Amino acid sequence: MKLLDISEVAQQTGIAASAIRxxxxxxxxxxxxxxxxxxxxxxEILDQLALITLGSAAxxxxxxxxxxxxxxxxxxxxRQVLFDKADDLDRQIERLSHLRDLIHHVAECPAPSHMExxxxxxxxxxxxxxxxxxxxxxxxxx
Amino acid sequence: MKLLDISEVAQQTGIAASAIRxxxxxxxxxxxxxxxxxxxxxxEILDQLALITLGSAAxxxxxxxxxxxxxxxxxxxxRQVLFDKADDLDRQIERLSHLRDLIHHVAECPAPSHMExxxxxxxxxxxxxxxxxxxxxxxxxx
DNA sequence: CTACAAATTCAAGTCGACTTGAGGTCAAGA
DNA sequence: TCTTGACCTCAAGTCGACTTGAATTTGTAG
Lengths: 142, 142
Hints:
Two copies of one chain form a homodimer. Chain A has six helices and three strands. Chain A is mostly helical. In chain A, strand 2 (about 35) and strand 3 form a beta hairpin. The two termini of chain A are about 40 Å apart. At the A-B interface, helix 3, helix 5 and helix 6 of A face helix 3, helix 5 and helix 6 of B. Chain A binds a DNA duplex through helix 2.
């Protein structure tokens, strides 16, 4: 079984060693042991870090990611909480889609000021409406 | 023409007065004048703030939002940069969709540890691949 | 006219996620 | 055995986006 030291992990994942230590300190990952002072990680660390990267790229805090996928990739949350997270994601996806459409419109619309374009204002109104809907965790992603 | 003072704006948008001042200080918005010390805003401020809220909910920094839609809702960027922003959004949407699917799977899969589930690992690998694609602004959103 | 509530400015504080720096340790190679 | 250099710990610093607090400054109600 091949063990990786922190620099190998850093190199293979593109994550800084200091960040990896930080994740361990916060309990998102664990090292399998030490050689002298040096941490040793099992190969599964790579997938775990991929998961952490994905989760935080999606806008979740480290604590939230920790809750979704525990230190060994096992979810620490109930089915319901997970579904709620997925719903949060769907709302966020909707917001992003609106913004993307808005930006596309901005790039193409010839109106001198976009606030004067009825289409733009309509899209904007539509988007703001989303903000006032319930969010299960109470935490909007951005 | 009806002018709004900061507390009315705060109340109608749900944004704290301190945040509104902060946006003005950073140049994302401008007040139309003062009554004594007190700022007065035109009604268009509401849409502008909606735009700022949307943009930052989508993960853009205030500086980026400022670049996308200037102080009066006019975009300060070239068509190309806007299209690039839209592409960034599409990538982010893809990431979020993957994470949502992953979470759904986690909520439903009976495997003892998800890292042992081939479907999970496959989805994860698929997601990580996304991270290595080019991003036009150099800045991933989350 | 006076008091008061609401705004104002400016500096400093907070929070999350790391990064940086100083000083220490130890496995491995010469 | 001695020397490196990679890694270690712990404290402090950074960055963005605000918030908070203290010391003013009004417009307005009484």
